[in-house]
Specification:
Order of helices and strands: HHHEHEEEHEH
Radius of gyration: 21 Å
Structural class: alpha/beta
Shape: elongated
Oligomer: single chain
Strand content: 5-15%
Length: about 190
């Protein structure tokens, strides 16, 4: 039985490689493994293009998005998700793109972006109407919306992007604010 399953898996990958030819506009040299993952050489090629040729990089991102969508639609595991926490350093140019490229390269097609953790929100510091501090600490990135950027870049790569949070995760920093201590349960 196991031999039959492995044979069918190999056959489906072979057929998928044949179908990824010019009619779909996808380079037939793009090959993925049984888990819809890119090879190391393709990952390196994409990273090199990201840094040197934005136009070619964008074309390759679209090809990989189509490739992932095609693979997941024919794979027994149709949705593979990962949780992602973004930090202040992710406001640097190309950071989110690089992270999401690695997520796609590993075969994930769904991302859950944490929007509230450790008493910090994923809102721009200059537009944060909440009581919690922003994740972004860099003053020059005061208007950067990491969630909006993650959604935009994720969709560009064919990812489903969801915002998620733990509902009572107010964080340690919130409990230290003297004017908020009376709203917290003690020994709860």
């Amino acid at each position: 039985m196991l031999k039959k399953v492995n044979y069918l898996r190999s056959l489906s990958c072979f057929l998928a490689t044949i179908l990824w030819s010019s009619p779909l506009g996808i380079n037939s040299s793009l090959a993925i493994n049984d888990n819809c993952q890119l090879s190391e050489s393709e990952i390196q090629q994409q990273e090199n293009l990201r840094q040197t040729s934005p136009q070619e990089y964008n074309i390759l991102v679209q090809k990989y998005a189509e490739q992932l969508r095609f693979c997941r639609s024919r794979h027994w595991l149709q949705e593979q998700a990962i949780w992602l926490r973004l930090y202040s350093c992710d406001t640097r140019p190309g950071s989110i793109e690089s992270i999401l490229d690695r997520i796609v390269a590993k075969g994930y097609n769904t991302v859950y972006v944490e929007v509230f953790a450790d008493g910090q929100v994923l809102l721009p510091p200059n537009n944060n109407p909440t009581l919690w501090d922003s994740v972004i600490k860099n003053p020059s990135a005061g208007n950067v919306d990491l969630l909006a950027e993650a959604i935009k870049q994720g969709h560009k790569r064919g990812l489903k992007v969801y915002a998620w949070l733990f509902s009572l995760n107010f964080g340690y920093a919130y409990s230290l604010k003297p004017y908020r201590q009376e709203v917290l349960a003690r020994n709860g």
